[in-house]
Amino acid sequence: MNRLFTILLLFVFSELAAQNNLGGIGQWRGHFNNHSIRQVVKGDYIYAASPYQIIKYENTNPINWMDKSTGLNDIGIEHIAWDKNQEQLIITYANSNIDIIKGDQIFNINDIQLTNLYPFRQINGIHVLNNFCYLATQFGIVVMDLTKHEIKDTWYPNNNQQSANTFNAIISRDSIFAITENGIWSCPLKNNWIQYNQWTHFSNFDNLKIKGVIQQNQILYAYSNSSIYRLADGKEVYSISNGKIQNLDTTLNAIIINIHYPNNKGGLVQLNKEFKTSVIMDSNQIISPMQSIMENNQYWIADSSAGLVHKSTQNEWLAVGGPMSNLNGTLVVDEKDLLAPYGDNYIGFAKLSEDKWSHVIKVGNVTLPNLNASFISKKDQSYWFTTNNNGLIHLTNDNHQVDFVFPNKNTGSYKNIQMDANQMIWITQDQQGIVRQTENNWSLITPPVNFVTKGLDKFIVNNQQQAWMIAPNKQGIYVYQSKDVHGTEAWKMLGTGQTNGNLPSNNVTSMAHDKMGSMWVGTDNGIAIFNCGNIATEPCNAYLPIVKSNGFNGYLFQKETVNTIAIDGANRKWVGTHNGAWLLSEDGIDIIEHFTKNSPLPSDSIVQIIIDPKNGEVFFNTKIQMVSYRSTSTEGAINQQNIQIFPNPIPPAFNGLIAIRGLVDNAVVKITDLTGKLLYQTKALGGQAVWNARTYEGRQVATGIYLVFVRDIDGHEKGIGKIVIADGY
Fold first, then answer.
1. How many CB atoms lie within 10 A of CB 265?
2. Could you tell me the residue range of the domain that residue 687 belongs to?
3. DSSP 729
4. Average pLDDT across the chain, whole number
């Protein structure tokens, strides 16, 4: 007997947070593309699996979304199965990690993922029987004890004790049957134990390209991409000449065949015990079914191209949450909505509003094209998008009208779009320069002839009415200055020369404009900070901040590519690199947070960071998918009005942070008991302060009512509120 692992079991236990609404400070939530549903199983609820999330259903309504942000240990979900004896859900991932969800607990079993015994360790399938789980892997069959949550044994489906890529394994009566790269093999099974030299080879199936086996009414059937065979005698009982059998499922009296046809069409076919077929769903109703279950004469179908289908008296595509595709455009967020264009991935855009995702591909009779960059007008809350060849898209909020706007007839697509402090629109136009809207008129501002314009894209307009552009072909930065503030129109090219920009690299990758007027510029060799005035008459050179790391001084993010920079309500800097996301102090010297894929981030490679100004939620769009994190900072209010305290009252056993928001910038917050005794004092981060319900000395406060007093630094803007701490805190 060859055991895969030592007696010492490596498993991780964690609590499962089952929610997808905006949580408290420090909590995460996923915003994953669930357009592809790979599996659906029946347990205590209906569970559907996309590559990124598990969605739990009751009566077709999603109860919650489970993913890395709510306690799962990985992304890339490959298989799920239900263990009815222990009432738990088994999840395997593309990297061979395993989670088992039992109630509100998660058990992580990463032995297969971490072993060095086999170069290829992918888990191809799950079969559950009694208290054991049989995992078909690229090296054999791994037996997992579902009571102890541990690996029990490893079996090789052959008689030479060599590893074999096993596609599928199933137990029927007293034997285990395995579909491998070397054909179909079976072996007697007694008390969950096998004798290795007793494997039987079904050699008559060797040339049929069998990929799976199922059991229906104690009869085993093997199937390939085009045929189904009875295992006992090799008889072909079903075949197709056009399309691919993706999977077989069973009911009490029939086999359900999931078929994908050419031209993006699918079908669901029932094969009865007389081997006669009937169509459950045709190619007009389904695209690419991967798995189907029947419950009380209702079907649930996982479709890898279109989501989850529920069929009862009629067909219904169920809401699975999240965008419909990866977000390859430039995202924008304000106090009400988040807009996420799909870029070249998909037409239209996704929208997050009031904790719900919607997908917009058509407005009225107008089908939207591929959209790239977006912004929301502060003037009228209308939406603007750039496109490759369709000008600008202007979508008004009031009557949902779509306008196609062409500022000029020049060659070159409109790339990025911004609105300045005077609510005028600026756009970069590839091969041309800058397009600016002034009093409903569009004008083209052409760079000097020695400036390369092919490849113009990302830019930022600051409060000095200067447009800072990432120069094409790794040539540093172009700065255009209008006459509006300094009275002199000018262009300037900034590079690595000490007196001509002082950039750490000419390969500029990102930019942000902070609350003090500084321009933060990210490159493939760290960050530069500019504090420039009139570029027509004054030098404009960067300051390169020096920080201490591992006992040595160096430039900020030296030798790292800074993909994105965002500024929060406290003027702190959120920086995204290929090594995760960082929260820096206002001056960039101190690291406050560093998130990597060991956190709920699905990837270390951060593409864009945007921040909701109202609640401080930080959205990380990574190269894989998007997640968000509830930060401690929000934008400050102009005037001190109503103080918002969340949660309030504080529920029993709550151990998070209490948010006090709706404050003016950098307000002073004092918390007292009802006698007026000062318990705690802090300063708002932008428009929000936080309290952990402890005194200065770190003592947890008792059940009761506490008063909150707020004033700005000048003592003019004042406010008062109260916090109720419930019994049991």
1. 17
2. 644-725
3. -
4. 91
